[in-house]
Amino acid sequence: MSNIYKSRKYVFLFLAPAFLFIIIYLYYPFLVNIYGSFRQIKNLGTYGTKWNDPLYENYLKLITDPVVRTSLKNTLIMIAATIIGQVGIALFLALLVDNIGRGTQFFRTVYFFPIVISATALGLLFNLIFLYDKGMLNQFLELLGRKTLTDWKSEELALISMMIPVVWQYVGFYFVILETGLNNISQELYESAAIDGATRLQRVFHISIPLLRNVICTCMTLGVTGALKVFDLPWTMFPKGMPLKKTFLTGTYMYYQTMEAKNVDYGATLAVLIVVLGVILSRVTRAVFKESEDI
Fold first, then answer.
1. How many domains does the chain have?
2. Does residue 273 fall inside a structural domain?
3. For labelling alongside 33, which of 26, 170, 259, 267 has CA 20 to 30 A away?
């Protein structure tokens, strides 16, 4: 029986179902999607009537489409909000919780709770919070003495109003990852540092954060790639990129072109763009926040 584990040919036998699953449900649809980006397709589930003329028509449209530029700009802002807001706040909260004596389980549950709520439900909830008339936020400002109401979904504030709940929802996700990383750091290191006279703040900066480097890098990569395809919560709050198509992200604009505008081929082209950007930005993120092999 032990010879089974020594022979590498059996390894491929056990890995074959996973490879088959990836090929059927990941690589094959992606290749079909690339094929569809060169065809004229108006209905989902079809291969189109004919080839585009010129063949690269949809990719040329990407360059000239002003909404694509808007969605890319908004997505880059979302990526910055993810790195600073989601991962940054999650790291701060994880360090705080790791340094308190009591109530750690309570805070872990509270911070993680938003991630288990449906994004659609959260979008509807924040729509009520940001209502112009009788919305919770405007009512609160009225109690503080503010006389004029704020339109939180106006062209100037719409992007901020959309990003606040997106950041809030996923802080708990990264908090759990970072908290797990902190729990894997040996307490002996902290005890030795304390004996040497290191303060709690010095232990955080010289032990916790350096030893969390690889975990932080993973969170950054997940955040960047996740921001490229975020869809459900922004679409619930600002369907069809309203107002004036200023709140489109790459994910929501792809959905709009595919499902609303019935430009399935152009939606496929946008999907290719998202994948390419995801690969490039994930590599850039790993290069900037390079993992250490010494940890």
1. 1
2. yes
3. 170
Task: Judge whether residue 38 has pLDDT over 60.
Answer: yes
CA dist 245 and 233 (Å) reads 16
- Angle of helix 66-81 relative to helix 57-64, nearest 10 degrees, comes to 70
In angstroms and rounded to an integer, the radius of gyration of the C-alpha atoms of the chain is 24
**Using a CB cutoff of 8 Å and minimum separation of 24, what contacts does 207-212 make?**
208/95, 208/98, 208/182, 209/91, 209/95, 210/295, 211/181, 211/185, 211/295, 212/91, 212/178, 212/181, 212/182, 212/185
User: What is the extent of the structural domain holding 134?
Assistant: 53-288
In tens, the pLDDT along 266-288 reads 999 999 999 999 999 888 888 88
The domain that contains 266 carries what CATH number? 1.10.3720.10
* pLDDT for the residue numbered 99: 80
Give long-range contacts, CB 8 A cutoff, 24+ apart: 52-61: 52/265, 58/265, 58/266, 58/268, 58/269, 59/269, 61/266, 61/269
| pLDDT tens string 151-181 | 998 989 999 999 999 999 999 999 999 998 9
pTM, 2 dp: 0.87
| Helix ranges restricted to H, the chain | 2-6, 9-22, 28-36, 57-64, 66-81, 89-98, 104-112, 119-129, 136-143, 158-183, 187-195, 200-203, 209-211, 213-229, 232-237, 250-255, 264-288
